[in-house]
Structure to design on (1102 residues):
């Protein structure tokens, strides 16, 4: 039997495009003589479809897609993820299902049992868990068909009470298929492969795994569809971060053996963390623009490393003709800020302009003088500069149909070291899930062969340049310390004492944690953040604004 | 036996304050000779504590509260909602529990079975559902203790497969206690009372119900704690929208009879929808400020009905000395805008100032002239005005420690008729869950006895005044039609065809639904919206930004 893994990029709610893609993939698979093609979880409607799933209309369109795809399943079977209406009155309205299509019709429906409802996942919001587990017999093979989380209740990760494979194994399946919607994070590739390996080993069965690829606003899907053999070794992987399709031959000799048809193996082995982050963020930008129907980005270039990195990634994603860097110096800007930015823009071959905010800031100051009178220059005046820049950038974006890209990093988003409606503006936050220390690592990775981001930008001391001689270190501890404390708190949800026990100053820990919590109101209004960690700001981290915990 | 219902306002994560409040309430109840005092669901930590529940630290503090409260339970028992650690390795880490405290210690723990995971509720994210159901025997009474949603699986609302009362009833309880965290919406009071009545009738038992009161950022809790007798009649209610505590006497003659001790009945009967909305929004503003430690609000007063209503509600919530109305006319503002605003400010007795944006707008236009050149005046220039106002308002807020209140309404938030980083700014959106047609109703309700909001503001045609002779009706259909279409789509999740079947123009319906969906990116960055409907923008409505459904 030949099995085709089809790793596609779907557009949420865009049923016609998604359906066409799958039908094309089926036709390609037929050319390879494939017997079975496997698509990802909730492939018809895209993932995550979120509350669109609550529209009957939307579910009807998913069902139409299934019928249309099934019509092409002649001489081939297809496994397609799609929502199913729960026929029983009690419980949630839907199941998260895998359709087994063959002979032009729906032959089996398998419902997902383990519904992830943590971090960015909300599946209990929409779906009733499946309770019945049966293998599917097709061409004399017995298939254990599972959906994503169904394989995740493994020994060291006991999130659930059930494990569907423990039931399915009693029917002696020949292999496992898992269709998934497993978003990228910098630790996810390894975690996910371990889950697949543990399952293969535990049940002594090969696993065929198909994931989504592409980006849905804040979530990036890396793909990484693969085949794991019954001894727990990765036999082959599909390409990461791009669409891919491959066919494998199954033969039963003494044991089940797997061969790769008409293609070469693309096993990648150990991956480079920053290379992955770079390509992930590039994909995140690209698909955000594509899916919203935009082509061009405008970015405020401050002379600092954050905006330099964003402008580099935007150029990689959209091409140099589609990126506009705008420098907006004030009386507090250093000369090198503009010069370093000009050098970067020249190296990237992008359009750049210098638009001073001095007059705007002066006019605002004059307008407010009757009220501010003799109050000292302070945070308000700093915010006014940042917001003046945002008004100019948004005007350029609105006038010429660009999207403004946000340049906030995770460290500053965490402690509120940024101006809401100022430098926190933008359609999407590109590097908002990277701590400042990671920003440097990524910049160095980008410069590994040749200097693209001017070293001067990397080496200068971080500064917002909103008052004379300002430095980030005036307000914040050194970034390596800050980022460690933040990581313990945000990613690891450790309490004050646990963090102090790592050897940090108690008062500093208290101060930092308080800053994180009292700035939740700013993050509520922040743009979506491209997620590359296990815990990004946004829908995966839900914290009260008006709470009093540690604040 | 005497039962005290204690309806308190808790502060999320503020364990010391919440614990003190409950101990004071216990002492008050003891003075009345009460045998049992009942507090709300998750009373120790506040509701919703959201991802704070994922911090072990936070859970330990909740457990300390329970021990501290238990120490005061001598000669009285207390029922207190608090999270419990799930002792079993498998499943979620916590239970949502009701502690039964007596003789200084924890006597029973009941775990919530039905976990709401829809709209603004995310309880499956944190809690494992309870599976064991036993009555609690106390002073010869058998108590069926349930937690909020546990009573909600009633005939016409089959969200769940189980109904804990169906098990508990077999042990012949004498009455039902339900502790809840049931937020206000304009239909919720009736819905909730119906649920309690249906349970009382079905099981032929009295129900003692205690809810939260107060506001947690976007969520407003109206209280409405009450006693329902075994025939399904509301015997008594506690006050709405404020803390209250009342004690009831239970006597077993032929049947169980209930009497009210030392207080008068405050049964309210049919409630006035707009009176409730007014008090709910006032409470929402008040507690947002109190909990964040702010006192003063600044509001941009345009001369339109939306900002007039917000400034009125803010004055009611914070007092006239704490509200600052700022008028920011441009060359496109009508004279009556400023005059009507001055009249309103005078009537409310609040501080007002006029700060023209003409120079700021002119400077911005001059700055951008080299880029905009001969492009026509359009949406960009309108947004620039709106954003100039936001920069001024935020500068005033930052300089003097005010919070800017947002004045967007639900109709404009829905179709994106507003400027992100402009009039969409603010710490909290006061009327963002009221359609424009409801805004008029609420204004008329406020003016029912005397004219407070100038009729000229109510009667004028809505306009953003961002270009000469602009009217909302240039861009939008009449608000009664728009709001009906929006209601069918947002509150009722109806599809295009279903809405058209109500008799609306097909092209108009398509246009409106598309506007709603393509403006999701703006709402992602909108302030928290005080929730008064069954479906508010914000955490209760989760929609993809880069989706393609109906757009």
């Amino acid at each position: 039997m030949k099995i085709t893994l089809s790793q596609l990029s779907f557009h949420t709610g865009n049923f016609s495009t998604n359906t066409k893609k799958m039908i094309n993939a089926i036709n390609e698979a037929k050319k390879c003589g494939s017997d079975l093609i496997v698509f990802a979880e909730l492939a018809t409607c895209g993932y995550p479809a979120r509350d669109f799933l609550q529209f009957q209309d939307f579910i009807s369109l998913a069902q139409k897609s299934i019928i249309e795809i099934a019509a092409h399943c002649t001489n081939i079977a297809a496994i397609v993820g799609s929502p199913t209406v729960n026929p029983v009155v009690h419980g949630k309205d839907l199941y998260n299902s895998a359709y087994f299509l063959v002979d032009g019709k729906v032959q089996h429906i398998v419902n997902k049992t383990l519904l992830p409802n943590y971090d960015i996942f909300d599946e209990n919001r929409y779906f009733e868990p499946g309770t019945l587990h049966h293998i599917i017999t097709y061409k004399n093979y017995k298939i254990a068909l599972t959906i994503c989380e169904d394989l995740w209740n493994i020994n060291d990760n006991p999130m659930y009470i059930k494990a569907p494979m423990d039931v399915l194994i009693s029917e002696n399946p020949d292999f496992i298929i898992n269709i998934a919607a497993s978003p990228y994070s910098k630790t996810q590739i390894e975690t996910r492969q371990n889950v697949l390996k543990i399952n293969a080993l535990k049940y002594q069965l090969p696993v065929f795994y198909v994931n989504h690829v592409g980006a849905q606003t804040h979530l990036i899907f890396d793909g990484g569809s693969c085949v794991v053999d019954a001894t727990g070794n990765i036999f082959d992987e599909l390409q990461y971060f791009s669409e891919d399709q491959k066919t494998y031959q199954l033969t039963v000799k003494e044991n089940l053996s797997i061969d790769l048809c008409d293609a070469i193996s693309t096993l990648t082995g150990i991956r480079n963390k920053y290379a992955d982050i770079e390509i992930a963020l590039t994909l995140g930008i690209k698909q955000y623009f594509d899916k919203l129907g935009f082509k061009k980005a405008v970015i405020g270039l401050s002379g600092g490393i954050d905006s330099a990195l964003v402008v580099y990634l935007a150029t990689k994603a959209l091409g140099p003709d589609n990126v506009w860097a705008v420098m907006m110096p004030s009386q507090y800007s250093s000369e090198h800020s503009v010069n370093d930015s000009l050098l970067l823009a020249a190296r990237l071959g992008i359009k750049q302009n210098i638009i001073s905010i001095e007059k705007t800031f002066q006019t605002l100051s004059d307008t407010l003088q009757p009220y501010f009178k003799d109050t000292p220059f302070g945070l308000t005046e700093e915010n006014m500069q940042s917001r003046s820049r945002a008004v100019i950038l948004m005007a350029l974006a609105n006038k010429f149909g660009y999207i403004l890209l946000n340049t906030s990093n995770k460290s500053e988003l965490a402690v509120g070291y940024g101006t809401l409606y100022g430098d926190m503006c933008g359609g999407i936050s590109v590097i908002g899930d990277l701590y400042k220390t990671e920003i440097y690592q990524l910049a160095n990775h980008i410069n590994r062969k040749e200097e693209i981001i001017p070293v001067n930008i990397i080496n200068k001391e971080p500064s917002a340049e909103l008052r004379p001689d300002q430095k980030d270190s005036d307000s914040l501890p050194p970034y390596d310390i800050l980022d460690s404390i933040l990581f313990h708190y945000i990613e690891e949800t450790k309490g004050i004492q646990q963090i102090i026990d790592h050897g940090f100053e108690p008062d500093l820990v208290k101060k930092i944690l308080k800053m994180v919590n009292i700035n939740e109101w700013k993050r509520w209004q922040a743009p979506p953040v491209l997620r590359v960690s296990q815990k990004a700001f946004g829908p995966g981290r839900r914290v009260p604004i008006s709470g009093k915990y540690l604040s």
Notes: Chain A touches chain B through 95 residues (CB under 8 Å).
